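User: Quick sanity check before I run a bigger batch. Here is a single chain. Can you write out its predicted 3D structure?
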Amino acid sequence: MNEAICAICTPYGSAAISIIRCSGDGCIDLVNNCFKGFNLNNALPNSIHYGHIIDNNEIIDEVMVAVFKAPKSFTAEDSVEINCHGGIYVTNRVLRTLLRNGFRMAEPGEFSKRAFLNGRIDLVQAESIMDMVSAKNKLALGIANNGISKKTSNMITNLKQEVLDILVDIEVNIDYPEYTDIPEIEYSNLNNRISKIINKMDDILDKSSGGKLIREGIKTVIVGKPNVGKSSLLNTLLDEEKAIVSDIEGTTRDYIEGFLNIGGITLNLIDTAGIRTSIDEVEQIGVKRSLSKIDEADLVLVLLDNSRKLNDLDLEILEKTKNKKRIIIMNKIDLNKQNDYNADIYMSINDNKGIDALEDKILEILNLNDFNVTDSNYLSNVRHIDLLEKAKDSLVEAIKGINNMMEVDMISIDIKNSLDYLGEIVGESNTELVIDRLFQRFCLGK
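Assistant: Done. Predicted structure follows.
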């Protein structure tokens, strides 16, 4: 596991600087073999040195080399970072030189994996590194920072300790019944202690729905019959001509996507084909896709036309979206009113009227107006949420066992399962297979 590895860890292409990261046993000596300048074997920890990368006495590039010594490095191993000139050719020449001098190419996520396996970071911190790289807005970045700074891990560790305390009390009573100074486990007390932990988990899970939406982005689908202004709304919100706008019905034949930041959250906006009956086979496919996008949406923006009365198509769309989080928008309020439907927002997209009100309504309906990223009492990662739900469900089963007056050693099985699920969040009980699959999602050089 400690063999010397290397990889480019900056974006591939033309740039002022490229960084090649190296880590593992003997990596300082291996870099030193192709470095002309200061003897890196004599370098102090956390120091940087000027010189050249050479290959068969040929100067490849002028570089700055940073040296980090175990355990005070990201991977907790001896590490080197080579700062060379940016550019595809020169960066690859430096990389090939390292590979010829004894390095192996790192696998995706292998640096972070080593940091985890060496105890430098826990699994939540490791996943938060990629969350930071892929953060689409300020709040998502704040959530990632909570994970990296161990706020999230500490929250889970505190829950684990409470569950563990209960399990220890049960095990002591089971294993050492002869000791009279050990308090006997009472079902009512056990019920109260477990119930308090379940309430904490419920609170975290309730808040986590908002964190998940912020981290992953909110899939927002714009629907309506043809010519109600769907494409115009998309273009106005994105402030670009993303979709073709035309008076001809059926212009949009497939969904069009774009990203928008509102109040620190990211909307994945999807403009769908106008929903109507059509003999055009291609348009029929577009309408079918529009209906499927409604099912997948976190939020639906339903557009109605102020200048036209509701018809069967409008009613069909309203029926289709009634169980979704939705905002009903009455567009074209600049035209003569023909529609008496009571909408949530009234707009004239062509005149930019109602845009601010719509953005405020989006934050309101998603309950994200008061979302506080400094409050670390929530999760955003789907894996973490799923495991916490399983941990809670195990405690619920324990409560059922208490109510049914089951033997306390049987109840302890469910409590132990809860403890294992919590441990899995921070990586304390993961199998090697799970670890491998998780880090394979990382980019090269991380």
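The CA atoms of residues 159 and 197 lie 7 Å apart.

User: Great, the batch can go ahead then.
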